[in-house]
Design goal:
The strands form three sheets. Strands 7, 8, 9, 10, 11, 12, 13, 14 and 15 form a nine-stranded mixed beta sheet that branches. Strands 4-3-5-6 form a four-stranded antiparallel beta sheet. The chain has a two-stranded antiparallel ribbon with strand order 1-2. Strand 7 (129-135), helix 5 and strand 8 (166-171) form a beta-alpha-beta unit. The longest helix is centred in the C-terminal third of the chain and has 19 residues, at 263-281. It is 31% helix and 28% strand. The radius of gyration is 20 Å and the shape is globular. By secondary structure, the protein is of the alpha+beta class. The chain folds into two domains: 5-117, D-amino Acid Aminotransferase, Chain A, domain 1 (2-Layer Sandwich); 122-281, D-amino Acid Aminotransferase, Chain A, domain 2, CATH 3.20.10. The structure holds 4'-deoxy-4'-aminopyridoxal-5'-phosphate (PMP). 4'-deoxy-4'-aminopyridoxal-5'-phosphate binds at residues 33, 152, 177, 180-182, 201, 203-206, 239-241.
């Protein structure tokens, strides 16, 4: 079940998308992926804050209120009677207009969302994953959660062909983030991650993990670092809405630390799981 009546062809009860939809033709839009545990939203508010920021940054004006959007999201869960673990994909694009690079800021946006069941990746979280470094050839506004994911798609596919689960982006010798996740390393008991500049997406789980680290009294440094620092790290992990706190145990075939997920990664995973448990209770 989707929402947004205007996009459902009532004769066949199928959603449709116009040929001259700017999201399709230009990637002119933004999106969010929100987690559900036992059918309950997890960290919804910060996702909404980022969604509105993304829209503002590309001058996309919503024709609905934030309260209406939240009602739609809850309706989506209810109409599907979704009670499992999953995610909602929500996309807002500039809408339909005769094809032209120049956009009309008053154009009515197209919005759609749907739910997909998705279990917590418990076994990879326990074992860790292998990553391959890839050149970060993205634009300079990676802070916007834009629909333009071609460099991410190509990097991850390239990494997958080398036997890796995630691609680790490197720009001018600096490790930025994963193709669809943020990146952290642990050295001498402290956490390091790229600062939230225009070169990375400020992940919701990134922000959450930083707050968990604060609670656990783990020192945090939002600083730039290179591939050599990663290879000499004690522990490494990625964070994202669907993959949570995902240990990286190998980079480009070299083991990180002892080659298995480390104690700080584990402590953060445990703290994250506590939060998941609390969400399920609501
Ligand atoms: N960076 C990139 C490039 C991503 O695509 C994602 C996931 N969408 C993230 C980081 C992680 O963000 P979040 O924690 O909000 O899922």
């Amino acid at each position: 079940v989707l929402f947004g009546d205007s996009f459902v062809d009532t004769s066949v009860q199928q959603p449709y998308i116009s040929l001259e939809e700017r999201g399709l033709q230009f990637g002119d839009g933004i999106y969010e992926v929100v987690r559900l545990y036992s059918g309950v939203f997890h960290l919804l508010e910060p996702h909404l804050v980022r969604l509105y920021r993304s829209m503002e940054e590309i001058e996309l004006k919503p024709t609905f209120s934030k309260a209406q959007l939240v009602r739609w999201l809850y309706e989506l869960v209810e109409q599907n009677q979704f009670r499992g673990d999953g995610m909602i994909y929500l996309q807002i694009s500039r809408g339909v207009q005769p094809r032209n690079h120049i956009y009309d800021p008053q154009n009515v946006p197209t919005l759609y969302a749907y739910i997909v069941g998705k279990e917590r990746p418990l076994s990879s979280m326990q074992q860790g994953i292998k990553a391959c470094s890839e050149q970060d050839i993205r634009w300079l506004r990676c802070d916007i959660k834009s629909l333009n994911l071609l460099p991410n798609v190509m990097a991850r596919t390239s990494a997958e062909r080398k036997g890796c689960t995630e691609a680790l982006f490197v720009r001018n010798g600096i490790v930025t983030e994963g193709s669809h996740s943020n990146f952290f390393l642990v050295k001498n008991g402290a956490l390091y991650t790229h600062p939230a500049t225009h070169l990375i997406l400020n992940g919701i789980v990134r922000q959450y993990v930083l707050s968990l680290a604060h609670t656990l009294e783990i020192p945090v440094h939002e600083e730039m670092f290179g591939l050599r620092d990663v290879l000499q790290a004690d522990e490494c992990f990625f964070t994202a809405t669907t993959s949570e706190v995902m240990p990286m145990v190998q980079l480009d075939g070299t083991a990180i630390g002892t080659g298995v997920p480390g104690p700080i990664t584990y402590a953060l995973q445990e703290a994250f799981s506590e939060g998941v448990k609390n969400t399920r209770l609501h």
